């Protein structure tokens, strides 16, 4: 009879059972310590539950009576998303070439990476607050915010794609004496174009979602309409706005998914 087991079991993450138990107990103790030391005011939590009940009670049924205001806010969000995507992608392409180690000199590479890191360091809401303070309330602050947001994502992903290209084509054109611009156009762009188109579509979808968030702090769009509805205690209208946002994001996700699938 064979001494070998018939089935395979995945070995534990930590082989020593005593050490494994100590790690689990330590993690559990840390969790309870964190929960016990969090400054939670349970009286305010109880009051919050009561307020949440009033909000949800006032939100049903959703009100679409002010559909004109809702459509205007959504169209403004769409304009913000399109402008920010075009501007962000246009700025991301040169930054991505700066941040690709295989095509950029070392000082330029560090500069490009620094720009990407700064663009990715802050949440769009924080960037929106800064631009609202700088240029005032409205959609222009939203466009600037989402341009920065787009650079942080598109430039990083595109730079990684440039570093993964087949460099033989680049070396062949350089050996033939082709200038730098021709090398970019004929050896690098054809290899990164499918990724660039996919990233642009994804970023437009992402900017449409983010425009609803940054609008809450005054950067225009449907988010500003939603914030005003909550400010006026129009919970039924706020729920109608939320339903439209979810519906639009679902449609946008389906369309962009189909386009990305076709160009993959």
Automatic annotation (TrEMBL):
**A Pfam family for this UniProt protein?**
BPD_transp_1
Entry annotated with the keyword Flavoprotein: no
Question: To which species is this protein native?
Answer: Alloyangia pacifica
Query: Which subcellular locations apply to this protein?
Result: Cell membrane
Please list the residue ranges annotated as the ABC transmembrane type-1 domain.
74-256
List keywords of the entry alphabetically.
Cell membrane, Membrane, Transmembrane, Transmembrane helix, Transport
- NCBIfam families xref list: PhnE
Q: Which InterPro entries match?
A: MetI-like, MetI-like_sf, PhnE/PtxC
Q: What CDD domains does the entry give?
A: TM_PBP2
Q: Which domain of life is it from?
A: Bacteria
A GO CC annotation given for this chain: plasma membrane
State where it is primarily located: membrane
Instruction: Write one Gene Ontology MF term.
Output: ABC-type phosphonate transporter activity
Q: Which family does it belong to?
A: Belongs to the binding-protein-dependent transport system permease family.
TM region(s), chain numbering: 21-40, 80-104, 125-152, 172-189, 210-231, 237-255
Query: Does Cytoplasm show up as a keyword for this record?
Result: no
Question: What PROSITE patterns does UniProt report for this protein, alphabetically?
Answer: ABC_TM1 (PS50928)
List the top taxonomic levels of the source.
Bacteria, Pseudomonadati, Pseudomonadota, Alphaproteobacteria, Rhodobacterales
Please give, as recorded in its UniProt entry, the membrane topology of this protein.
Multi-pass membrane protein
Write down what this protein is called: Phosphonate ABC transporter, permease protein PhnE
């Amino acid at each position: 009879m064979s001494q070998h087991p018939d089935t395979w079991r995945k070995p534990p993450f930590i082989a020593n059972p005593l050490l494994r138990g100590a790690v689990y107990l330590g993690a559990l103790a840390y969790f309870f310590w964190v929960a016990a030391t969090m400054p939670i005011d349970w009286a305010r939590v109880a009051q919050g539950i009561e307020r949440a009940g009033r909000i949800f009670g006032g939100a049903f049924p959703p009100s679409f009576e002010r559909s004109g205001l809702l459509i205007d806010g959504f169209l403004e969000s769409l304009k913000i998303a399109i402008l920010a995507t075009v501007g962000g992608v246009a700025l991301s392409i040169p930054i991505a070439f700066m941040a690709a180690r295989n095509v950029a000199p070392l000082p330029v590479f560090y500069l490009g990476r620094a720009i990407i890191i700064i663009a990715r360091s802050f949440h769009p809401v924080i960037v929106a607050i800064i631009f609202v303070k700088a240029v005032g309330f409205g959609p222009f602050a939203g466009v600037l915010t989402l341009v920065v947001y787009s650079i942080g994502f598109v430039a990083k992903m595109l730079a990684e794609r440039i570093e993964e290209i087949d460099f033989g084509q680049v070396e062949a054109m350089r050996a033939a004496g082709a200038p730098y611009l021709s090398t970019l156009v004929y050896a690098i762009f054809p290899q990164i174009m499918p990724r660039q188109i996919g990233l642009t579509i994804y970023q437009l979808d992402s900017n449409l979602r983010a425009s609803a968030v940054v609008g809450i702090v005054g950067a225009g769009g449907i988010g500003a309409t939603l914030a005003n509805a909550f400010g006026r205690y129009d919970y039924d209208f706020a729920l109608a706005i939320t339903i439209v946002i979810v519906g639009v994001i679902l449609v946008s996700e389906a369309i962009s998914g189909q386009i990305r699938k076709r160009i993959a």
